[in-house]
Amino acid sequence: MSKKKDDTPNPVIAQNRKAWHDYFIEDKYEAGLALQGWEVKCLRAGRAQLKEGYVVIDNGEAFLVGAHFSPLTSTSTHIKANPVRSRKLLLHRLELNKLIGATERKGYTLIPLRLYWKRGNAKLEVGLARGKQAHDKRADIKKRESDLEMRRALKNR
C-alpha cells in the first residue's frame, strides 16, 4: 500500500503581514504550540491574532508572547481564559540552540509569521529576522510600485 500524499496547502489560521514590512526574514522554523483546550477551540474558529506577538527565549525554552487568542463565549465556564498569556513553543534542541546563538550574539529577533494546521496540530512559523530601517522600507515600497507598473504595462500591451 502506498501512502496518499496530501497536496492541499495547510489551512492558515492567522498571518503576521506586518512582519514582512518591518523585518528582513532570514530563516524560518516550524514550531508546535503547547495549548489549552479553549485555545484550540479559538483557533478552530479562526480567532487568533499574531500582529503584536513576538518570541522570547527564556531558560533554553521558547515562548510566544503577546499573541491574542480571543476566547469563545461557549468554552468552559470553570476556567478563566487569559487571551494574551505566554505559550510555550515546541522546538528541537538543535533548533533552539541555533536560535539562542542568533538572538544573543548576532542581534536577530524572533517573529511569529503565520499560524496554521498541520495534520490536526497547530503549528507556528517563526522567522529569524533583522529589523528594517526607514530607508529599507521606502526602497521596498518603490520596488513594489515599479513592479506593479511593469505588470500593468505588459498586460495592456
From TrEMBL:
Pfam families, from UniProt?
SmpB
Gene Ontology molecular-function annotations: DNA binding; RNA binding
Q: Which UniProt keywords apply?
A: Cytoplasm, DNA-binding, RNA-binding
Q: Could you tell me the superkingdom of the organism this chain comes from?
A: Bacteria
Keyword rRNA processing set for record = no
> Which compartment or compartments is the protein found in?
Cytoplasm
Kindly list the GO CC terms recorded for this protein: cytosol
GO process annotations (BP): trans-translation; trans-translation-dependent protein tagging
- Check the record and name the InterPro entries matching this protein: SmpB, SsrA-bd_prot
- Name the segments for region: Disordered: 135-157
Reply yes or no: does the keyword RNA-binding apply.
Answer: yes
Report the function annotation for this chain.
Required for rescue of stalled ribosomes mediated by trans-translation. Binds to transfer-messenger RNA (tmRNA), required for stable association of tmRNA with ribosomes. tmRNA and SmpB together mimic tRNA shape, replacing the anticodon stem-loop with SmpB. tmRNA is encoded by the ssrA gene; the 2 termini fold to resemble tRNA(Ala) and it encodes a 'tag peptide', a short internal open reading frame. During trans-translation Ala-aminoacylated tmRNA acts like a tRNA, entering the A-site of stalled ribosomes, displacing the stalled mRNA.
Annotated family: Belongs to the SmpB family.
Identify this protein by name.
Answer: SsrA-binding protein
Instruction: Please tell me the species this chain comes from.
Output: Sulfuricaulis limicola
The upper taxonomy is: Bacteria, Pseudomonadati, Pseudomonadota, Gammaproteobacteria, Acidiferrobacterales
